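Archive entry: two folds, one per protein. Generate the first.
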Amino acid sequence: MGKIYVFLTVGFGIGFPDFLSNFGVGFRGKLFPEIILKKQAPAFMDFRFVINIFFRIFSASSAVFKDLADKQEFSGRFFLYYGMPLIILAAYARAYTLLVAETEITFRLQDLIFVNMAGFALSFWLGAYLIFLMSPSFKAEKSFGKILMLVIASFTPYFISMLIPLIHPTLAPVTYAGIAYTVLLFGKGAGVMLQVPGNKVVGFTLIAFFIMFGVVFLSLMIFTGLFVNGDNV
């Protein structure tokens, strides 16, 4: 299937054409930019590709990051086909674990799942955008598409580790190992996908870590306040 271009004219400029261009949206002009929305070819993202990425992120992460670096224009599809299944699993795991561990919580399971899904999804996008803004300070490639894919792929160990306590609550510390592995993967991917210089990888990774997990925490708090009935607190 060929690419389908839809041209829309907007009457004012917005300050992040480069940010959108890395997500598959192109701009033409300044005062009256022409937004080009591209329908991505479906061949890149299918079930086999998702499964392949999932297993290779643990055994051949450098090769995975190289593959993703060449496909930044498909970051939206990567979020939907790879990121969302992880978010759904992690949201259920965290919601169920909270209900079991915290006896005073009276939220319904479906409310907690929704809050966690919304919080995690927002965290991917907002966290990736904040990292995108700081990337020039570390001489990293300023590509929102690549950063979003890097964040999603790197969070695989953490989200999977959240499922382990469902086996038994005493296995909860495994999530800390998932966090550590996530940070390690992000640092490795930052050099491969964003071309972060070797002497800046550690600093870039640590700041990105605090950004992402800070955004996760704040997002979960916000959505809990917005969508969970206060009478249930």
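Generate the second and append.
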Amino acid sequence: MGKKQDSLSLKKSQLTRSFGSGFLCIGLGIGLGIALTFTAGIGCGSKPDLSPTTAISTQSTPADPAKDGGNAPKTQEKSTPDSLPQGSPPAPTPPLEDGSIPNPSNPANPANAQDPGLLPLPNQTQPSEKTCGLRQVQKEFVARPFSPTETSNLPTLPYRSTEKDPDRHFRHALPILPLAGRTGITSNAIPYVRDSQVLFAFDLTDLPPKEAIISLEKAELVLGLTKISHDSSTSTELLCFLDERVCSGELFEDKFWKKNINPAFFGGKPPVNNFFAQQFLDHQVGSLDKDKLYSATLTLKLSDLISGSSFHDVLDFTYSGLPSNLPVSKRVLKLEIADDTFVSKDSALRITLIEDTCRTLSLTQPNPK
């Protein structure tokens, strides 16, 4: 009887411990926020695993199939600063040994070293991107007639009209014509010019400072011309830059016309070269009485037209009278062609240059970046 009671007491004690262990297990499961898992060989009476790998988790990784015969449960990585999402604020700087917070503005403080992943400190600036360099600038300026103001204030011209000569009783008038102006038109509608001065201009706008130009690649006139050709004087044509007093070509120095040459313009000096006079127009388009009409579109380099002048080069000529350190908002180039040549309104001046925009910025901005 005593043995039965002892056996019954032992079973009762084991049952009590089992129930107590079960309640303790459930309580721990609720308190820690994890689910209890019962697997073969693991009972409720086993100790719960409270290691950091299960207590603190951020993401799961595949188990190594080589472990536990390929049946190992998934493990979880410990949360560390390296695993924070991108863009999260950095961890606060730990206090120094004396309990004070490091001062970033103190250069002697190692905490002042810039972390590549942090924003710049308030007293630091990020380097700006390079926005300047060499660039090619191409410009085409279309010819235009003189304005009314320019026409009423004409510069000194290469030719002038003469009054009647007391001995010979004749005068030579050299009318002034605008761009595309004509003195007549042929039966097949070809405009022509005879014994006249055609005036036109180019507005050179938005050019960089002369000091910022690395090289002038191209500067040329493209002129649509029609010329009356006299057998005895095929090359007496003249192209002049009026304000610069530079002419290319040949003067008409016939004894009956010599007084029409304006000494105030030339100052006793001849044209700087005869390049323009040598540009014969080889395409005959018609005739006028005993004369022939030739037409062509000529491309003439400015360097050829001003060769022999006092200008060092075309760049010097183009920026004549202008400050070298400032951009050119507008420069007017005035021309004349005389005396038997019609000039088309489609004529143009083309310029190609290489600009150092870094130099332009340094000249035009007080504190360029």
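Annotation attached to the second fold: The chain is about 15% helix and 25% strand. The two ends are 105 Å apart (CA to CA).
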